[in-house]
Amino acid sequence: MLEADSIVANRQMRRRLGVWRIVAILAIALSLGILTLWGASTNGGLSKFSDHIARVRVEGLITGDRKTLKMLEELSKAERVKGVIIHIDSPGGTTAGSEAIYEAIRKIAEDKPVTAVLGTVAASGGYITAIATDHIVARGNTITGSIGVIFQWAEVSRLFDQLGIKMESIKSSELKAEPNMFNPLTDKVRDVTQLLIQDSYDWFVGLVAERRNLDKPEALRLADGRVYSGRQAVENKLIDALGGEKHAKAWLVEKKNLDSDLEIVDWTPKAKVDPSGLGLSLLAMVFKGLGVEHSELFLSKILQADGAKLDGLLSVWHPSR
User: Fold this and answer.
1) What would the pLDDT profile of 237-255 be if each residue is shown by its tens digit?
2) pTM assigned to the model
3) I need a surface site. Which of 94, 160, 226, 311 has the fewest CB within 10 A?
4) Residue 49 exposed, middle or buried by CB count within 10 Å (0-12, 13-18, 19+)
């Protein structure tokens, strides 16, 4: 009799545990769903399900990283995106990376009107990004231009001589791995490197002439590497007007017939290790509870820090010493 009672009790206990397991799983799923919707709504995610204007930010060094290119590709296919405003605050980056961003923006522009708003700096590769759009506005004191290409390296052979260090190498031909920081620059290496630079420079100038409707001599005159203020850029037809996002949206409404009531929604690349955005939002909530403001932006910068890598030819502006 006791054994039968024990069996019945065990079965009842298992049923109760099974019910509570189901309840717990449903509660966790509901919580995750609510948090996901909360994270989406605070980042403009829910707004992406209705017609809107996309806001894209190109900031820092431009490398043509995969996350940004993937985001631009998704944007180009998004039927709810009726126009795009690209905010640029960048001194440039790699020439190939700038080329990739340029091509991605031109792909978007095949079906949607795209305009650029230049921030503090939009020079060199940042300017390549700007001319990929169909309309450019900037502040009067924006730094832009710097049309050109640079290839830099440190030459440390004399320092190594003083330290008693000699670098040896065996290579298949004279120009392999040249220019090289361990060897003095020869005339032949200088000549072939200059040809490389000239080829990329010609490509850059050609883009400026084509996109800004300038003849080649005028584009070459402007492409001596100097930077321009926003006011100078307007005078030289490198940009279209002075202003900010309000003026960019006005162009979309007045010239491209977009609805003036369309919301502007942020589009950002997905974090490398947090594709759902949920973990980042939860971690940001913890930091916010501890009194740390703007933690989500800080964390996203950390997750995307691998994009800040420079190698190869550069289209980047920086003040000389």
Assistant:
1) 999 999 999 999 999 999 9
2) 0.75
3) 311
4) exposed
